[in-house]
Q: What sequence folds into this?
């Protein structure tokens, strides 16, 4: 059995319905099933006790896939229990992490806009505490610097979430 564990969202209890996470879960479940594993899904926040959430499944766990900005104490618990774990879409020095190249992705996107003739580039950035948001912003800033341009402060819009509604609210 493989546990797929997401941090809770402030206002959305069932994050698995978010397209990114549902696609990720689907692919992981498909590969795991092929290898003879069942995948179970749950959410965890900083106040949850991972052992209580997983309960009797702990004995059957072959591994844990933590997703996104999971609280470090949950990673520490998995390590203490010698459960193999990986972090997807986030970074931890403690376990293997699989991330996108956020810096280069936004660098290339910004470079494309510049090649199309745009000079007034804006950024709608996510939660600033997330490494991905920081790396994405750094990619845009570096690209602009490499082209002797700067990101105007009024063109940097930050928000407190990753959901569609958060982006809409920030842009409004």
A:
């Amino acid at each position: 059995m493989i546990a797929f564990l997401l941090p809770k969202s402030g206002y959305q209890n069932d994050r698995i319905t978010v397209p990114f996470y549902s696609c990720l879960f689907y692919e992981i479940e498909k590969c795991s099933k092929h290898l003879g594993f069942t995948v179970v899904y749950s959410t965890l926040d900083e106040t949850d006790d991972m052992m209580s959430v997983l309960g009797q499944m702990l004995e059957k766990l072959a591994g844990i896939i933590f997703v996104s900005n999971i609280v470090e104490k949950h990673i520490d618990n998995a390590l203490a229990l010698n459960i193999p774990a990986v972090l997807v879409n986030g970074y931890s020095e403690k376990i293997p992490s699989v991330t996108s190249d956020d810096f280069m992705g936004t660098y290339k996107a910004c470079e494309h806009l510049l090649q199309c003739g745009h000079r007034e580039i804006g950024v709608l950035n996510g939660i600033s505490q997330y490494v991905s948001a920081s790396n994405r912003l750094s990619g845009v800033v570096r690209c602009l610097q490499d082209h002797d341009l700067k990101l105007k402060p009024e063109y940097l819009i930050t928000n407190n979430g990753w959901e569609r509604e958060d982006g809409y609210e920030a842009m409004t």
